[in-house]
Target: Cupin domain-containing protein
Amino acid sequence: MGTAEFKHFGTPDEVREFPKGRLELVTIGGATVGRATFEPGWRWVTSVQPIAKTRSCEAPHFQYHVSGVLHIVMDDGSEFDCGPGDVSLLPSGHDAWVVGDEPAVVVDFQGMLDYARAH
Model:
């Protein structure tokens, strides 16, 4: 029988900051979960692309959207908004930005291990 574990994003294992954003990571049960906060004016191409040095975001995401709205544009041209209560599955190859004046907060169960980290 396994051992129960719990963590809190108030005391993350790692924090990464980037222009208009912050990522808090906790590792639990052998998995890393990230909570990202994107401030109004945040856009992947201007805030994270200079760190990632890729044409578009190559991190796949499986996210629960807590608050705010993110507009997502896939490399294939499809686009949509995600807001509170939405769950999104994004393969590699996308851009995103905050819509409106409220920070967008997402909890990501995949893809944050190397997010906003220089390679």
